[in-house]
Write a structure and sequence with these properties.
The chain is mostly helical. It has a domain of 114 residues. It contains 16 helices and two strands. A two-stranded antiparallel sheet has the order 1-2. It is rod-shaped and about 225 Å long. The N terminus is likely disordered.
Length: 630
């Protein structure tokens, strides 16, 4: 309107502007420069490319992390260790040796318990005990002990070997259990470390996702700001096209010169017109100032966007540096875990080697101990055989002495008969016998009775029958008052023969001492028989009670040791008695069941009662001997 009012050149109206779509001479479409700029702006901005680059590492983080691979390797190593332990737990040489040794031991035990000769001797021993034939009891007992000494020693040795192997097996089982517990603790610790690593990796991945989402949000804000800048720039370009290229300031200057001339001329109508035109142009200049303000504002927004982009770039560089450091730390952790895994495998291998060496050492020690026990048992068997040989020689010597005494007694009997015959020939009446002759006959009867008891103890039946006939003859002579069945000797008794008779009579106390020693040995044998009988009754009750094979072997071993202790007591071998008693106590201490402990206490009470009875019998016998000497 100002142009029409003041006659100024008019600008084109908005409806008269050139169309937005422009065609070239050939009729092809040519987009305006603003649309070209907008199309260029719609291409992927650098910030979007940065966001895409950020999202790509996030996707890589979501893939299997190195820590998961490390956890898998740790689990694989644990599986290998378990496999190695499983191979070690398979049949070890010591267990195979134990299994190979138990089978022949059971066969030997069955052969020992089913020995027909031993069963027959035990039946004979029971019959002799029922009949009270102590001489037969002693003979059968010696044979039983000889058989059991030859058969029972391997059984006792194998029982000791079985016990030693059982203890070694228990110790190895305990060590294997400790090893399995340690491996289980190591496995749990590895799983716990792996779980912690997984949690840490998940937390880092979650933080990365959150940071990526935050950066994406910031990118969307930045893109909105850039879009606003482009819109403002487009509006400004549109306004500039509408206003044209002519500045309003030149027109205002020309109008001001006209206004000055009109003021000088005093043409108030021209003044009003020029003033109105100037005001219109000034209003347009005000719009220009607003545009410049908007331009400054847009530039300021662009500067802030640039600064924000630089800040985002810096944060992105920091994030990349942080990710690089985290990857490096994860790699270092993985290397440490691999080194730790190698150390654990080496430690497990060393433990397995140490255990194998320990098992070999234990096996060697066990073999040495068994060899030492076998040697000790061999020495004990040799000693027992030597002792039996000494006792046999002693019995032969006593038998020879008894035979010698019988021959001497026959000689004495002949001398006495000849002397009595001579006295009877000297007596013209032939009756009665003198008092001296009667006293000698009575003394001879007593001597024959002692010889008879000794012959019966040695089981010399012919000698005993001869002594019995002589005793009856002498007693009939005393009753009849004259010598019965006495024939005249071919020659008279010489002085040498009378001297021998006196020497034999003087040797009577020594022979009586020998008889007392034999009597004490017989009583000791009776004590052994009582102990054996009690042990056999205990074994029968044990077998009837249905105890295990191990319990029967235990009681059998104790019975054998009790017999050995009784023999050591007879030989006055106090050190052997103490050693055997310690071995018996150690065997009883190894008893585990209440029934076995009760049987042990019962046998101890029975043994104490037998020893008490034996001591009482010894005391009574010593009292009788003392009274007899008085």
């Amino acid at each position: 309107m100002a142009q029409r009012r003041f006659g100024l050149p008019q600008r084109q109206d908005a409806r008269e502007r050139q169309p937005a779509v422009i065609y070239d001479r050939e009729g092809a479409y040519q987009p305006p420069p603003v649309e070209q700029a907008i199309g260029q702006d719609r291409q992927p901005a650098p910030i979007r490319q940065a966001v895409g680059q950020v999202r790509q590492p996030v996707g890589q983080v979501r893939q299997p992390a190195p820590i998961r691979q490390a956890v898998g390797q740790v689990r694989q190593a644990v599986g290998q260790v378990r496999q190695a332990v499983g191979q070690v737990r398979q049949a070890a040489p010591i267990r195979q040796a134990v299994g190979q040794d138990i089978q022949p031991q059971m066969h030997m035990q069955i052969e020992h318990n089913q020995n027909p000769q031993l069963i027959g001797l035990q039946a004979q021993l029971n019959q002799a005990i029922s009949a009270g034939n102590f001489q037969e009891i002693g003979r059968i007992t010696n044979e039983i002990e000889a058989i059991r000494g030859a058969v029972g020693a391997p059984v006792d040795q194998r029982a000791e070997q079985e016990r030693i192997r059982h203890e070694a097996q228990q110790e190895r089982d305990r060590r294997e259990a400790d090893q399995r517990a340690q491996q289980e603790r190591d496995r749990r610790a590895a799983e716990q470390r792996a779980q912690q690593e997984r949690r840490a990796a998940e937390q880092r991945a979650q933080q990365e996702r959150r940071a990526a989402e935050q950066r994406a949000q910031q990118e969307r804000v930045r893109q909105a700001a850039e879009e606003r800048v482009r819109q403002v720039a487009a509006q400004r370009a549109q306004q500039e096209r509408e206003q044209g290229a002519q500045p309003n300031q030149a027109q205002i200057g020309a109008l001001q010169a006209q206004l000055n001339a009109a003021i000088s001329a005093g043409n108030f109508q021209e003044i009003g017109r020029i003033t109105t035109a100037i005001e219109a142009l000034q209003r347009e200049d005000g719009g220009e100032q607003q545009r410049r303000a908007e331009q400054e504002e847009l530039e300021e927004i662009a500067e802030r966007a640039r600064q924000r982009r630089e800040e985002l770039d810096r944060q992105e560089r920091q994030r990349q540096e942080r990710q690089r450091q985290e990857r490096q730390a994860a790699q270092q952790r993985q290397e440490r875990q691999a080194a730790q895994q190698r150390l654990e495998q080496q430690a497990a291998q060393q433990r397995l080697e140490q255990q194998a060496a320990q098992q070999r050492l234990e096996q060697q020690t066990e073999q040495q101990r068994l060899e030492r026990i076998r040697q000790e048992q061999q020495v004990e068997q040799d000693r027992l055989r030597q002792l039996e040989e000494d006792r046999r020689q002693e019995r032969d010597r006593v038998r020879q002495e008894g035979q010698q005494r019988a021959r001497e007694a026959r000689a004495v009997d002949g001398d006495l008969a000849r002397r009595l015959f001579d006295e009877r020939e000297e007596d013209p009446r032939g009756n009665p016998l003198t008092e001296r002759t009667r006293a000698e006959i009575a003394q001879s009867i007593r001597l024959y009775e002692e010889f008879l008891q000794s012959a019966r103890g040695r089981r010399e039946d012919d000698v005993a029958e001869y002594y019995t006939q002589q005793i009856e003859t002498l007693r009939r002579s005393l009753r009849e008052g004259q010598m019965a069945q006495c024939a005249r000797p071919d020659e008279r008794i010489s002085e040498t023969q009378q001297q021998e008779i006196r020497m034999l009579r003087a040797d009577i106390p020594r022979q009586r001492g020998i008889i007392e020693q034999l009597t004490r040995e017989l009583e000791a044998e009776e004590g052994i028989q009582r102990t054996l009988r009690a042990s056999m009754e205990s074994i029968e009750r044990t077998e009837a009670g249905g105890l295990s094979e191990a319990s029967r072997r235990l009681f059998n071993r104790v019975r054998i040791l009790e017999a050995q202790k009784a023999r050591a007591k007879i030989d006055n071998n106090f050190s052997a008695q103490r050693q055997i008693q310690r071995e018996i106590d150690s065997i009883w201490e190894a008893a585990e069941t209440e029934e076995e402990r009760g049987e042990r206490e019962r046998l101890i009470r029975q043994r104490d009662a037998g020893l008490t009875a034996q001591r009482d019998g010894d005391a009574a016998r010593r009292t009788r001997e003392r009274d007899a000497r008085r």
